[in-house]
From TrEMBL:
InterPro entries: GreA/GreB_C_sf (IPR036953), Tscrpt_elong_fac_GreA/B_C (IPR001437). This is GreA/GreB family elongation factor. It comes from the Bacteria. It comes from Sphingomonas daechungensis. Residues 83-149 form the Transcription elongation factor GreA/GreB C-terminal domain.
Length: 152
């Protein structure tokens, strides 16, 4: 039979649903980040306990696989001392005559809109291990100065 006369299923036209990508490297988290992951897993499991339309159920299952993997691989970052820039610190820095304060967190906890920056971000990677007063050369040729380090 010619393919012109074959009925195509609706699924042939759907975009494929790929798994959510797991970021490379260790899954270091703050205590707050671990609590957020655990809450997300509990929320998704509660949704799966209820009857859902198949498409929605598949989307929730996909999210649940991601968050279960993140929960299983989560490692609490070492408690910061507050002496150096590390995961779990609030860092105030000056760049281009402007000061900004950011909290350094794990990947899943990052939210630039609330000044929570993941430890894998290029800016944070440049700052990790720095001490108060250090000047850091950034890849783009700019420099920043660490003005304050506090425990988050």
């Amino acid at each position: 039979m010619s393919v012109a006369f074959r009925r195509e299923s609706d699924e042939e036209h759907l975009e494929p649903r790929f798994e959510l990508p797991i970021p490379p490297g260790p899954n270091l988290v703050t205590p707050r980040g671990l609590a957020l992951i655990e809450a997300r897993v509990a929320e998704l499991e509660a949704r799966l306990a209820d009857p859902l339309p198949e498409e929605e159920r598949n989307a929730v299952l996909r999210d649940a696989r991601y968050w279960h993997a993140r929960q299983a691989s989560a490692q609490l970052a070492p408690a910061p001392s507050g002496e150096t820039v590390a995961i779990g610190t609030l860092v105030t820095y000056r760049r281009d005559n402007q000061s900004r304060t950011v909290e350094i967190v794990g990947h899943d906890e990052s939210d630039p809109a609330t000044a929570r920056i993941g430890f894998n971000a290029p800016l944070v990677r440049a700052m990790l291990g720095a001490e108060l007063g250090d000047e850091i050369e950034l890849p783009n040729g700019h420099t920043l100065t660490i003005l304050a380090i506090a425990l988050a």
